[in-house]
Amino acid sequence: PFICCFLGSSGINAEYGEERKGISFSSTTWQPKGVLVCQINEHKAAINHVKVSTKHSILASASEDGNVKIWNTKKFDSRNIVISSRQTYSRPGQPIKGLVFYDKGDRVAVVTREGSLHEVGVKELKVCAAQTLDIESGDVVVDMNTLGTGEQQNLVVSTSNGHIVCVDMRSGSFVFKLTNKPQHGPVSAMCTDRHEHWICLGTRYGWLTCWDLRFHLPILSWQHDKTAPVLCVSPSLGCGSNVNVGVQGYNEVGTWNMESGCKERSLCYGPTELSESEQSIAGVYSILSLSPDLTVTGGADNCVRLWNARHETTSSVLSGPRELLGRQVYRKSVIQDVEVIHAEEDVELSHSEIKGPVQPSPAHHHTITDFAFVKSTQPCLVSVDMGGMMKIWK
């Protein structure tokens, strides 16, 4: 009954209130055009996370190669031909599974797959504190986020065995530990809402669970209609009770209401029926909400897609194979009370020849794993993939 008290609409203007001061553009109207500014290949393995600091002046990327790289976002400009990282923090042989900024962006916290937690000063990349999380043998870290602001910030870490561990960043002591139902399967994804009222976990068995952070209780658990492994969960802007979910084997992003456990919207592309071999490689791995209507997705098809829920015909493939660019149509329908936006091949354009010389594709060549929206000297979208490539788009 109390869920309605805090899973309310989270106004986007309040969300960006402080950060938008002095910025000449609005995140509610800006959208990427798919123009590649630059691509960077410093990481030697899959990039798991890319995060931007509070003031959007610094970007950090964390990789399976054990490196965290710090970037100056002011250099993400078309006038800079060569862009390199400012600093690198290395944990050789220890894949980085979690990365967050805190302390007004002056520090980053990183956690390795085995639970080694390090707090690092951004300016000098000097370890400020280090500890090992008390996780079970065979358990591994899935993701990490922050709770609170200022001196009250805590770290919250999820593990594959279903544990949610909260650590006080000042004292290093444990604040609380929650455990997901084992029968729901190994945890594979986590997100927290922007007002820090809840945590949503997704599992390999397709289950999603919303946890109340005030009472440390599970509010609702439901199984995805595809019963497929959850690859990513992300808060949906504009409605505090909704999450966007991507699962393995399906080229779809579903928006789910955590009050009812019902799907409200579906963004899908490609054939609705996939063969077993196609399902083994399909899936959406990264979702970024730019506004209540604009969503960017990326996954196993190596495409960056922009979806406009209000004006579906303006949706597009920002980056991908040349035969897809500008050659899809988007149609909206309602199926069993779910709003569905489906990208389909434009039959007329698909049979037309591509004129002019064939240029090298700026698209990713590996599965896209994460996005970041940077509001610096000019707005840009950062995408990263399993091949260690980072691309900057405007």
Largest sheet: 6 strands, mixed
Number of strands: 30
Structural category is: mainly beta
Helix content: under 10%
Share of β-strand residues: over 45%
| Unreliable residue runs | 1-27
- Enumerate the strands of the largest sheet in spatial order, edge to edge or round the barrel: 18-19-20-21-27-26
Shape, principal axes of CA atoms? globular
Number of helices: 4
Distance between the first and last residues' Cα: 44 Å
Radius of gyration: 20 Å
Q: Overall mean pLDDT score?
A: 85
Write structural notes for this entry.
This protein is mainly beta and 394 residues long. Helices cover 4% and strands 47% of the residues. The protein is built from four helices and 30 strands. The chain has helices spanning 3-6, 12-15, 276-279, 347-350; strands at 36-40, 47-52, 58-63, 67-72, 87-90, 96-102, 107-112, 116-121, 127-132, 141-147, 154-159, 163-168, 174-179, 187-192, 198-203, 207-212, 217-223, 230-235, 242-247, 252-257, 262-269, 284-289, 294-299, 304-308, 316-319, 328-335, 338-345, 368-375, 379-385, 390-393. The strands form seven sheets. Strands 18-19-20-21-27-26 form a six-stranded mixed beta sheet. It has a four-stranded antiparallel beta sheet with strand order 1-30-29-28, with no helix packed on it. A four-stranded antiparallel beta sheet has the order 2-3-4-5, with no helix packed on it. A hairpin with a 4-residue loop joins strand 23 and strand 24 (304-308). The chain starts with a helix and ends with a strand.
